[in-house]
Specification:
7-stranded mixed beta sheet; Rossmann fold; 12% strand; 2 domains; 9 helices; alpha/beta
Length: 291
């Protein structure tokens, strides 16, 4: 009798295990199918965007000592001195398009994608201002762009152009800082804002680890499929910007620049001042509501 009871109990347990195994295999199969579909969606849409948004500029090899790094350089117009545009953190070189188009009417002006950005390849080196400046210097030499230059830095780009002047002062004729970052900006924030910034940076670090996977599986693209339009920016330009930003190399480069922001600030402090070179500082004004 006891053996019969044990057999009766074991039968439902066996069926339950079989059903659990089948459900697990089904979920696993669905996950694999979803991953394949997502990766295919990302590949197809990314390929379509690559045809829709061709490279603006030329890929220039930096030569020995930079691990085959190629940076994208877009130069327009004529005149001297040449104007070099350096973007803010997280902004590919196409962010300068309106400025570069107008400036090219009276000067030679060049924008470039930092390593990992836009059409530039990724760099294995830490993304500090000093390393970025070394790469920019090598880029301009390899492209045979003649100095001295007028350096224009927006936000984090302001760090870079100041460090460039410290490293290569003879190559700098003047400077324009456009809402540039300040090396003491974090320490001057209120304690509450510093705590908020620290928390935000930690969130970004966690997202950085997950973001490349979300991009490769098409999840990030699908989630932002209806985005790309901002005030004052055409939808087409917004989509191009989104295409360039939805790349693992871009996410990793921007996150590394942010993680080493305080190190870059130290490099700016050590870079010295401009001396008697011309300096223009531009600061955003208040937005005027449309009537």
């Amino acid at each position: 009798m006891q053996n019969e009871n044990a057999a009766n109990v074991s039968q439902p347990r066996g069926r339950l295990k079989r059903w659990a195994s089948r459900i697990f295999l089904l979920v696993l199969l669905l996950a694999v199918v979803a991953a394949v579909v997502g990766a295919s969606y990302q590949a197809i849409e990314n390929s379509a965007d690559a045809r829709r948004f061709p490279q603006q500029g030329t890929s220039v090899s930096l030569g020995p000592g930079f691990d085959n790094l190629k940076l994208n350089l877009d130069c327009r117009g004529h005149g001297s001195p040449t104007v070099i545009l350096d973007s803010g953190l997280g902004v590919p070189a196409i962010g300068w398009n309106p400025v570069e188009t107008e400036a090219a009417k009276f000067a030679r002006v060049c924008s470039y994608d930092r390593a990992g950005y836009g059409w530039s390849s990724a760099s294995p080196y830490p993304r500090t201002s000093t390393q970025i400046v070394k790469e920019l210097h090598a880029l301009l030499q390899a492209a045979n762009e003649k100095g001295p230059y007028i350096l224009v830095g927006h936000s984090f780009g302001g760090y870079n152009v100041r460090v460039y002047n410290g490293e290569y002062p003879a190559e700098v004729a003047g400077m324009v800082l456009v809402d540039a970052s300040h090396e003491d900006q974090v320490s001057r924030m209120s304690p509450a804002l510093q705590a908020f910034m620290a928390k935000s940076n930690e969130q970004i670090k966690r997202q950085e680890k997950l973001a490349p996977l979300l991009i490769r599986l098409g999840i990030a693209r699908f989630a932002q499929r209806n985005q790309g339009e901002s005030p004052g920016v055409s939808k087409e330009f917004g989509r191009e910007m989104l295409y360039l930003q939805l790349q693992p190399k871009f996410i990793e480069a921007a996150a590394d620049e942010l993680a080493l922001f305080s190190e870059s600030a130290k490099e700016v402090r050590a870079s010295g001042n401009l001396g008697d070179k011309p300096l223009v500082v531009l600061t955003a004004g208040k937005m005027v509501p449309a009537s």
